Amino acid sequence: MLILVAEDNPDNRNLLTRRLERQGWNVVTAEDGREAVDVCRSAKPDLVLMDVAMPNMNGLEATRALRADPATAATKIIAVTAHAMDANRIECIEAGCDDFATKPINFPELVAMIRDHMGPLAQGEAA
Length: 127
Fold this sequence. Notes:
Blueprint: E1 2-6, H1 10-22, E2 26-30, H2 33-43, E3 47-51, H3 59-68, E4 76-81, H4 86-95, E5 99-102, H5 107-118, H6 120-123
Parallel strand pairs: 1-2, 1-3, 3-4, 4-5
Helix pairs in contact: 2-3
């Protein structure tokens, strides 16, 4: 399974990438929303972990762009944000995200969320 980590903070991006790779998943990265859209269109990831607050194009704008493109419209997207209010969750879901994870990331919960959304594609990977 291929996961796109769209995160502007290099430390967060690298940590999340290493932890996901330890699960046996392949990871590509993007540093902002525009790059996330480009990488998603070219690499065709199975799932995107989309930071909401990024430069150039924020995660919600990037999600809307991916949903508007028939080639990427069905890609699973989990919003990742430090904003944990119900209104933030609603905003992410309305933008087209499939789910919502808050920072700091609880990695076991994130893995469970990924497995729930990806089903058999994620189930056979290393624990």
